[in-house]
Write a structure and sequence with these properties.
Number of helices: 2
Shape: elongated
Number of domains: 2
Structural class: alpha+beta
Helix content: 10-25%
Distance between the termini: 62 Å
Largest sheet: 3 strands, antiparallel
Strand content: over 45%
């Protein structure tokens, strides 16, 4: 009776370990994996395997183009005519590693103060 519970516990523990090892990365997505707090790899779309409790998925980036609406602004032309200008910014992550380490807020484009 008790060996049955022990076997069920071992099977359940093995299932949990295997499920944490397997990562399926969707298309147009990149994940940054750190091993013990240090950058290890950038995983792109597909089936990926990590070591549980040692590797950790730290960042997830979408590689799709993102549109950010810019609020309307009033500008004055060279011939002193006021014109209201609308805008849209299109952003896309090209290098997930650089996007993960060093940019505080990609919407504002501010960078950490490196010393």
């Amino acid at each position: 009776m008790s060996t049955t519970y022990i076997l069920i516990g071992i099977v359940l523990l093995a299932f949990i370990l295997i499920s944490t090892m397997i990562k399926v990365v969707p298309q147009r997505t990149a994940i940054i994996v750190e091993r013990l707090g240090k950058y290890r790899a950038t995983f792109t779309a597909g089936f990926q395997i990590i070591i549980p409790f040692i590797d950790k998925v730290r960042y997830r980036h979408t590689l799709k183009e993102q549109a950010i609406d810019v609020p309307p602004q009033i500008c004055i032309t060279r011939d002193n005519i006021a014109v209201e200008v609308d805008g849209i910014l299109y952003l896309q992550v090209l290098d997930p590693q650089k996007a993960s380490y060093g940019i505080d807020n990609y919407r504002l484009g501010s960078v950490y103060n490196r010393r």
